[in-house]
Structures are given as structure tokens and as C-alpha cells.
Amino acid sequence: MAAATSGAVLNGLGSSFLRGARRSQAFLAGAARVDGGGAIAGTRKLVVAAAVQPKKSWIPGVRGGGNLIDPDWLDGTLPGDYGFDPLGLGKDPAFLKWYREAELIHGRWAMAAVVGIFVGQAWSGIPWFEAGAAPGAVAPFSFGSLLGTQLLLMGWVESKRWVDFFNPESQSVEWATPWSRTAENFSNSTGEQGYPGGKFFDPLGFAGTLNNGEYIPDTEKLERLKLAEIKHARLAMVAMLIFYFEAGQGKTPLGALGL
Description:
By secondary structure, the chain is mainly alpha-helical. The protein contains 9 helices and 2 strands, in the order αααααααββαα. The chain is globular, with a radius of gyration of 23 Å.
């Protein structure tokens, strides 16, 4: 079992997710060596021009120089990669993959929390950090029951996500999803961890289409949505940090906006 898991991890580290840039660099180098005329020469000029185009930096107006601005281990293959890793946390490819998944999960929770805070206070008039203690709060369970249930359910879901990270798609079998008659709706239809897609996770077809009942991902749409999502996720995490500081001063987001 341990050997199989280790093999899965190594296969994951050798995936196209981490090797894509090396293949692109090899292609660019090969194209640059081509001599001759016609279409091949034109392709060579076009590819070389694209190769020297500077990557966007997380510091406005700065285009390169050293691992602080443009780390070697960030090659632009990740959505929203602007070279930000001043502590070098992503030097190890395995850790880089894990940190990206963690950023994605935390960002999604933050986006849901920001919407919940605004809508909740606009609806009830109660500050979000006082909502649980408000006299009119709906609390059919004791705090201990609520905490125990949350730990049980979240522990189950998070443990499955942890196992699936090291052994991709191992959790999409029928026994792992007892609420579904088939694992088809819960399988990783896009082939990428963190972006399951499929009938269940993309019912409106934002990143794919349904063809005779089969979900077909649209790579171009998915790439655009991944970039948009990670940008919104980062903004939401920064917003939540601001909300916490405001709460420490007894202020709310709506109050800070004068609403």
C-alpha cells in the first residue's frame, strides 16, 4: 500500500502539470536552431519573439531580476503566477502543488465568507462577529453538538481530499460517494486536481459542454476561469483579513462603507 501511494506521488510530480514548461523550453530551443526559409523561418521568428517576452511581475513596473522578482521555480504554468514567492516556499515541486491547492481552497472559502458577511448583515442588521450570540439567532443545537458535527463532516471530506491529492481520482469510486448511484458525476472530468468539473460541479457548463450525457471540458474556457477564480480568491482573502481587523475595532464592512 505504501509503495503504491509513493508511486502515485512520484507519478503526480512527473505529470504534465509540472513538466509543461520544460517541454515548451525545449520546443523553443529547437525552433530557434531551425535554419531555412518559408514557413519554418517565419515560425522560428514568431516563437523566439514570444520567448523573450517578459513575464508579468508582482511588483508594478519591475520586469525581472533574481529570485525575489522572478523565481526560477515559478515558470508561469500556474494560473495567476506573477513570480510572488519571496520566502521560497514553492522550491519543492511537491510543496508548490500542495500550496496551490491550499490557496485555492482557502480562497473559495473566503469568497463564500465575504458574500455571507455582506448578505447576512444586510438582511439581519447584526454584525457578522456577533451573529452567533444574537438573541434572535437560529440555534437548534448546542455549541458542542454543532462543533462535533462539523468536525465529523469536515474531517471526513478533508480526509478524502487529502487522500485524493496523493492518489488522484481514488475517491471517485462508488463506495466513496454513497449519496450517488454512480461515481461518474463526481469523477475528475477535467483531469486536473482542484477543478473537477463534470455534471455535478459544473452544471451550468461554464467550462465544458454536455454531449449525449457526456461532459466534455473546454480547455480554453477553463484556463480563463482558473485565472479569474484565483484573482478573486486572493482579493477575498485580503478582504477577510481586513474584516478581522475591523471586527477588532468593533466595526463592520457595511459600516466602514457608510451603509
